[in-house]
Amino acid sequence: MSTLPIRLFGDPVLRQRANEVTEFDDKLRRLADDMMETMRASSGAGLAANQVGVLKRLFTWEAPDPSGEGFASGAVVNPDITFESEEIQEGEEGCLSFPGLFYPTARPLEVHITAQDVFGEDVEMEGVGLLARIIAHEIDHLNGILFIEHLEKHDRKDAMRRIRRGELENPPAPEGEVL
């Protein structure tokens, strides 16, 4: 396994919709492993393939296990949202493609998806709270949507001002969830 360079805001690949995965081979599994290593090395909770320059519908994630013991993690291929709760959660959110920027972001409290694992087997996944936030954030990435598009107007203006000032180059220590 190896870490991969993470694409930062301004890279056109971040605005592109990722392609469906049709080949479930060792190359895909190696990509998922490298993405997981990259995500962990960057202290992230999720990472979409286009964030590492690969236009495949694949993301990795890691969140506290609902049992309260340790963490759960995985890789999801070709995800489709089948349910989003009307109930919304507000929380500080960041993104590995916007290092150092954290803003209050509204996301569904609960999300359900159908997807495949890295072997092509069908899976269903439900997320509540942080895991729902991770799922929604990463599927947005796969659709070419960035978290700043969900921000209130004043926060989006602040984010863009900070980006122009070069604050992505020397990010402060994270305070919210980095997805």
Describe the structure.
- With 179 residues, the protein is an alpha+beta fold.
- The chain has one domain: Peptide Deformylase, CATH 3.90.45.
- It has helices spanning 26-41, 130-142, 153-164; strands at 46-48, 58-64, 71-84, 88-94, 103-108, 110-116, 122-128, 177-178.
- A five-stranded antiparallel sheet has the order 1-2-3-6-7.
- The chain starts with 25 loop residues before the first helix and ends with a strand.
In terms of topology, how is this protein built?
Blueprint lengths: L25 H16 L4 E3 L9 E7 L6 E14 L3 E7 L8 E6 L1 E7 L5 E7 L1 H13 L10 H12 L12 E2 L1
Parallel strand pairs: 4-8
Antiparallel strand pairs: 1-2, 2-3, 3-6, 4-5, 6-7
Output the CATH homologous superfamily: Peptide deformylase
Portion of residues within helices: 10-25%
CATH second-level architecture: Alpha-Beta Complex
The strands making up the biggest β-sheet line up spatially as: 1-2-3-6-7
Mean residue pLDDT: 93
Cofactor: Fe(2+)
GO molecular function, one term: metal ion binding
Enzyme class: hydrolase
Protein name: Peptide deformylase
Describe the structure concisely for a colleague:
Its EC number is 3.5.1.88. The protein has 3 helices and 8 strands; from the N terminus they run H-E-E-E-E-E-E-E-H-H-E. It is α+β, with helices and mostly antiparallel strands.
